[in-house]
């Protein structure tokens, strides 16, 4: 909840307040570390090495992206100790609270809903409302997170009727806000997630779902170097910036990492951000965790989580989100990858007796059976 509130404050009434941002991060990180030490949590050697490498690069390369990665992994590690329903419930509550806070600030007059008008040759070609935040992309990141997490919780734990009502509310809200913001990426992500909730349980091809971020990573240089004018225009000139960014980097930037935020132009691609801000090793770890998590989620019949990860991975290809750890739904992505992509979050019934495993799988599947 602290992260959710902080994410809104630093993009509204406390914009550019780096002290607040880092202060909340530091406080949350300290609480998490104390909780991990108190629980005497076992950390795998590979994860320990990864965290130490990131902290070393944080110091040596003065790279704040490494701090974000360390924060995400440590917080996800703590969340793996909690029941899955509890994590999803409070993630959804925090995401909705962040969206509610934006409208509360507007209602009290603490912020003003500015209209952003883009003109070309004296003709208005785009009108957008930021709802008191620093920018439309951030606002719809909050909207998408609240919609997807709420819908995922309803899908997993509520009846068909309550899920249908939630789906209708989510689609109506996201469409109305899309009309005023013209945030195509976030709105299409919500629609994609809703569609995948229907498709994934019926089309069970894990290799296709697990390959989504790999395909998106491979498509990035193709977009950067082989894209024509029309595609560039549709994608808001993202491919042009991809190419500029890649050409400005040296080989050691991909090995040792370098800060991405220092770039003078936007780099709206999480995979480029992770490859440079975290290094190629971190990108490889992310893709490997995603692959393993999808297979394990499919095996456990947790189709809602599969749909969520696919939608999130797709959204990340058009926005630099994967290290935006103030966004609750991004923290939830890292949690799913660590819990299901490793043995850290293995439920006890998966390592118990055959009878325990059978009972556990039946109980685990109950929430999804009604959708098949």
Q: What would you note in describing this structure?
A:
This protein is mostly helical and 372 residues long. Helices cover 70% and strands 3% of the residues. The protein is built from 18 helices and two strands. A two-stranded antiparallel sheet has the order 1-2. Strand 1 (115-120) and strand 2 form a beta hairpin. The radius of gyration is 21 Å and the shape is globular. Mean pLDDT is 86; it is low at 348-357 and 366-371.
Termini Cα gap:
34 Å
* Class based on secondary structure composition and strand pairing: mainly alpha
In percent terms, what proportion of residues is strand?
Answer: under 5%
Average pLDDT number: 86
Q: Number of helical segments?
A: 18
Low-pLDDT windows of residues: 348-357, 366-371
Helix/strand order, N-terminal first: HHHHHEEHHHHHHHHHHHHH
How would a textbook summarize the main sheet? 2 strands, antiparallel
Shape label: globular
How are the strands ordered across the major sheet? Answer: 1-2
Rg, rounded, reads 21 Å
Helix content: over 70%
Count of DSSP E strands? 2
Map the helices and strands.
Layout (H helix, E strand, L loop, with lengths): L1 H8 L8 H21 L6 H16 L3 H16 L4 H25 L6 E6 L2 E7 L6 H22 L2 H22 L2 H16 L6 H5 L1 H15 L2 H6 L3 H11 L2 H6 L13 H9 L1 H20 L3 H14 L11 H14 L12 H16 L3
Antiparallel strand pairs: 1-2
Helix pairs in contact: 1-2, 1-5, 2-4, 3-4, 4-17, 5-6, 6-7, 6-8, 7-8, 8-16, 10-12, 14-15, 15-16, 15-17
């Amino acid at each position: 909840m602290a992260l959710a509130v902080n994410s809104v404050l630093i993009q509204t009434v406390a914009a550019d307040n780096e002290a607040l941002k880092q202060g909340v991060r530091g406080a949350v990180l300290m609480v998490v570390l104390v909780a991990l030490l108190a629980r005497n949590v076992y950390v795998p050697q590979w994860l320990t090495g990864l965290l130490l490498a990131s902290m070393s690069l944080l110091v040596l390369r003065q790279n704040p992206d490494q701090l974000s990665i360390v924060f995400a992994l440590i917080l996800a590690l703590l969340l793996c100790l909690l029941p899955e329903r509890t994590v999803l419930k409070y993630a959804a509550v925090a995401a909705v609270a962040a969206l509610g806070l934006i409208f509360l600030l507007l209602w009290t007059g603490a912020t003003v809903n500015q209209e952003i008008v883009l003109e070309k040759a004296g003709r208005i070609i785009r009108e957008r409302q930021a709802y008191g935040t620093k920018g439309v992309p951030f606002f719809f990141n909050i909207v998408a997170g609240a919609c997807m997490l709420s819908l995922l919780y309803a899908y997993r734990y509520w009846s068909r009727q309550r899920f249908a009502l939630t789906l209708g509310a989510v689609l109506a809200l996201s469409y109305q806000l899309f009309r005023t913001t013209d945030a195509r990426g976030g709105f299409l992500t919500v629609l994609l997630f809703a569609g995948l909730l229907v498709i994934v349980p019926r089309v069970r091809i894990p290799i296709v779902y697990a390959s989504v971020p790999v395909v998106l990573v491979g498509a990035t240089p193709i977009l950067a170097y082989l894209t024509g004018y029309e595609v560039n225009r549709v994608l808001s000139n993202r491919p042009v910036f991809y190419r500029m960014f890649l050409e400005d980097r040296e080989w050691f930037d991909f090995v040792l990492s370098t800060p991405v935020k220092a770039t003078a132009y936007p780099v709206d691609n999480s995979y480029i951000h992770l490859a440079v801000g975290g290094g190629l090793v971190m990108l490889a770890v992310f893709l490997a965790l995603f692959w393993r998590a999808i297979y394990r989620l499919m095996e456990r019949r947790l189709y809602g989580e599969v749909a969520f990860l696919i939608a999130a991975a797709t959204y990340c290809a058009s926005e630099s989100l994967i290290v935006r750890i103030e966004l609750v739904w991004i923290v939830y992505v890292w949690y799913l990858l660590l819990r299901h992509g490793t043995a850290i979050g293995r439920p006890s019934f998966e390592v118990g007796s055959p009878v325990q495993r059978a009972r556990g799988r039946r109980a685990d599947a109950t929430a999804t059976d009604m959708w098949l």
